[in-house]
Automatic annotation (TrEMBL):
Annotated stretches, region: Disordered: 1-23
Protein name as catalogued: Mitochondrial carrier protein
PANTHER family attached to this UniProt entry: MITOCHONDRIAL NICOTINAMIDE ADENINE DINUCLEOTIDE TRANSPORTER 1-RELATED-RELATED (PTHR45683)
InterPro entries documented for this protein: MCP, MCP_dom_sf, MCP_transmembrane, SLC25A32-like
The organism's place on the tree of life at top rank: Eukaryota
A Pfam family it matches: Mito_carr
Transmembrane segments: 86-109, 129-151
Keywords: Membrane, Repeat, Transmembrane, Transmembrane helix, Transport
Keyword Cytoplasm: no
Locations listed in the record: Membrane
Bilayer disposition of the protein: Multi-pass membrane protein
Length: 168
């Protein structure tokens, strides 16, 4: 029987991470992040729609869009002219994007921490390496989900079946 080398000890079995957790635990983080993203979008999406419309009106000619005097006026105006559904415009890409973003983020963050621990040969990461792990995961999420956020914003700005054109 051969004696274990330092490389053998540093390499975790394929089904577990360096700190002994199995792959299922990493997927639990991904699922929990995705579910949290879904819940937050369902409750807060109307505020996101109003925020997006208020931000866009600053760069638009007054004749193309209604001029809102604030958040309450934007909600009242949208509900009066377009109905309650206007506050949930762009909901599908927001749900898909948020669940995808948070799911990928938590999974990638845990994987990045795992890989950085193995690379450094340590049991715990220092704050700088933890921050690097978070940046790696965040960068991946931005690249993957950016098209969904563009679609969500375009849908939030539609009024009566037409899209608002941004001033150029």
């Amino acid at each position: 029987m051969r004696e274990a080398t330092a490389a053998d000890k540093a390499t975790p079995p394929p089904s577990s991470s360096p700190d002994g957790r199995n792959q299922a635990a990493q997927w639990k983080h991904a699922v929990a992040g995705g579910m949290a993203g879904l819940a937050s979008v369902l409750f807060l999406h109307p505020l996101d729609v109003v925020k997006t419309r208020l931000q866009v009106q600053d760069g638009m000619p007054r004749s193309e869009l209604p001029a809102y005097r604030g958040m309450v006026d934007a909600v009242r105006s949208a509900v009066r002219t377009e109905g309650w559904r206007a506050l949930y415009s762009g909901l599908t890409p927001a749900l898909v994007g948020s669940a995808t973003s948070w799911g990928i983020y938590f999974f990638a963050y845990n994987r990045a921490k795992q890989q950085n621990k193995a690379w450094l040969g340590v049991d715990e990461l220092n704050p700088q390496m933890t921050l690097l792990s978070a940046a790696q995961a965040g960068s991946l999420v931005c690249v993957i989900t950016n098209p969904l956020w563009v679609l969500k914003t375009r849908l939030q700005l539609q009024r009566g079946g037409t899209s608002a054109k941004c001033a150029e």
